[in-house]
Amino acid sequence: MDKRDQDTASTTGKLDPALVFCKYRGMNFFANFPVSDLDRSKAFFTALGWSINEQVTDDNAACFAVDDDKYLMALRRDYYASLGDGSKEVGDPATTSLVTFAFDFPTRADVDAFVAKAEAAGAKLGSTDDYGFMYQRQFDDPDGNHFAPFWMDPEGPPSA
Hints:
Elements: H1 3-12, E1 29-35, H2 38-47, E2 51-52, E3 61-67, E4 70-76, H3 77-82, E5 100-104, H4 108-120, E6 124-130, E7 134-140, E8 146-152
Parallel strand pairs: 1-4, 5-8
Antiparallel strand pairs: 2-3, 3-4, 6-7, 7-8
């Protein structure tokens, strides 16, 4: 966007078309991570029930809407490496722990149902942790990125 377009956008309130979905109503959260096969990632994450936000999806990246203001961005490894100043090596999630994506569900059954979808889509299942007040399942996507959906009792852990 050149200076004239920026001035017009600031006076008309119109957003750059690529940013229309942001709406500045609050903070959106985007987690970016590298993948080796973007098409495989699209198939995997849509099988989990997450929709693709086509406004920010192209041959380099796919944006998955996890919730109204939360997005996962799967980026081709070479594109991911080109972001920033390019000085950091891109780790391989199949061999190196990079990050864990943890998110909650309203019930244990919802956690199990979600993990069943992940397994059917090709996830590698990990451990199950049950602390009574908290229940968590583990899985890796086909690239090795780690996910840990969980349920937690709204009352919290039992008092000592």
